[in-house]
Design brief:
This protein is an alpha+beta fold and 159 residues long. The chain contains 4 helices and 6 strands; from the N terminus they run αααββββββα. Helix 2 packs across helix 4 and helix 3 crosses helix 4.
Length: 159
Amino acid sequence: MKQLALVAVVVAACAHSDAEIKTAKLAQYSASPAQLYDLALEVAQHKYKIATSDPEHFDFWTTPRFYSPEGDLQSEGAGGVVKIDNHSVQVAFHVAVVSTTPHSVALAVTPQTFQVLSGSPKPRELAPDDPYLPPFVLGRADELQFAIYDQARALVAGH
C-alpha cells in the first residue's frame, strides 16, 4: 500500500497543472517560424521518432506508435511486429508552427489517432474531440506541447 501511495506522489509531481498546459497551448513566441520549428523538432526527437518533416511549411509528424487502451506503449517484438489488442490505438502527432501576427508565432500539437476494433477490417479514426479517445492521447499531446514550451520560454512574447 505504501508503494502505491509513493507512485501516486511521484506521478503527481511529474504532471503539469492545467494552468501550465493552458499557458503552453496559448503561448505566442517572438521568433521566426523557422526558429521555433527547429526548436520544436529538436525537443520532439528526444521522445519520438520523426516520420516526416516539412521545413518549408514549418510542420512535422511523429512516427505512429501503438498504445494499449490504458496508454502503455506496445513496442515492436521480433521481426518488427507489434502485438496489438482490441481497442489499442495508433497515435502520431502533428506539430505545426503557425504565424499569428507579423512578429509572432504559435505552436499546435494535434494527435492523429486510429483505434483497432476486433472484427473490423480497418481501424477507425478518433478525432481529438471524440468521446472514445482515450484520455492519455491528449495527455501525451499536452506533454509534448509543454516540453517544447519549456525549452522555448525565452522566446515567449512579452518576456
